[in-house]
Amino acid sequence: MADARLSDFAHPRYWLTWVGLGFMRVISWLPSPAIALVGGALGMLLYVLHAPRRHVVHVNLQLCFPQLSRGARARIARQHFRAFGQTLLDIGITWWSSAARLKRLTRFRGREHYDNALRDNKNIILLAPHFLGLEYGGMRLSVERPMVTVFRHPANKLLSVVMERARSRFYLRLVEHIQSFTTLVKQTRKGVPLYYLPDQDAGLRNAVFAPFFGVPAATFVVLPRLAKMTDAVVVPCITRQLSWGRGYEIEFRPPLKDFPSGDPVTDTTRMNQEIQIAVRESPEQYFWLHKRFKTRPKGEPDFYKKG
User: Fold this and answer.
1) Which of 274, 260, 255 is nearest to 110 (CA)?
2) Ordered structural domains, the chain, with CATH
3) Which of 294, 240, 253, 274 lies closest to 131, judged by CA?
């Protein structure tokens, strides 16, 4: 797909995509605080106009934070949409800005956990949950050294080509999600860090039900399998958006001890617990727009169905 020429996408059905990409490219030239301002306004517009996704966010927050008042959850939802709007525009920085700008907009926390594993020549899997800064974190880390990650082609072929080229412009190797583990295993065994995103609901294939904020959630069992196959340490890696366009913070947490245990439910529960800790620290930054609890155990109702 990346070998396709952009001139192949002159058909009118791609014109709107070209306009959107052009807008993102122009916006990326603005100072970061200006992008944050415009992005926040875009996010609130989406909050007002996109009722179905607003409903998804409210349901997720109610399930995960039942102890909060309705007003408190509503504030988190609005903060989430504002941050999401900025994230959409920050993709332009991620895809097209220089390595120097990416470095300038990044601060690290707990960097020693990652650096120590690299220094000790350990195979590394970065547990990178779906925080809004996920795209930025992967791109920023790929500036420094070769990395590998899993991705999914979007349905829009033009967007797919642009995205694949942008994500691989430094040292990030992309492996499509439908491919076997072989490439991921080989690369990780060679010492190439794997930037792995394990926390979305894609049904019960390669998944078990594990609690996420006390609610059974279909959770991939792939992370413990990969860790065992590659003899890798698993280092949680959280990328958060900083306020007022000040960039992003990439936080590394201590490697998971005694992981994997050999029991899929125990391991996925452990993984979800690590993600929960980070979510509680900055709940507005987690990707609540996703239907995290879409797949239900037999007999349970659809959380997202209205009425």
Assistant:
1) 255
2) 15-285 (3.40.1130)
3) 240
287: which DSSP letter? -
Q: Which of 268, 230, 225, 34 is nearest to 117 (CA)?
A: 230
Dump pLDDT digits (tens) for 243-252. Answer: 999 999 999 9
Q: What is the pTM assigned to this prediction?
A: 0.94
Q: Tell me which residue has tokens 């994500």.
A: 167
CA angle 192, 199, 41 (to 5 degrees): 105
CA-closest candidate to residue 134, choices 265, 278, 233 = 278
Residue type, 38: V
Q: What are phi and psi of 215, to 5 degrees?
A: -110, 130
d(CA 289, CA 279): 14
Question: CB-based contacts of 180: which residues, under 8 Å, 6+ apart?
Answer: none
3-class secondary-structure state, position 171:
coil
Above 70 in pLDDT, residue 1?
A: no
Among candidate residues 154, 171, 170, the one with its CA nearest the CA of residue 162: 154
Angle between helix 70-96 and 157-167 (nearest 10): 70
Pairing assessment for the beta strands 207-212 and 215-220 based on DSSP bridges? antiparallel
Q: How far is CA 24 from CA 15, 21, 29, 124, 244, in A?
A: 14, 5, 9, 33, 19
Cα–Cα distances (Å) from 282 to 19, 72, 76, 79, in that order, read 33, 13, 9, 10
pLDDT value of position 2: 52
Residue 205 neighbours by CB distance under 10 Å = 7
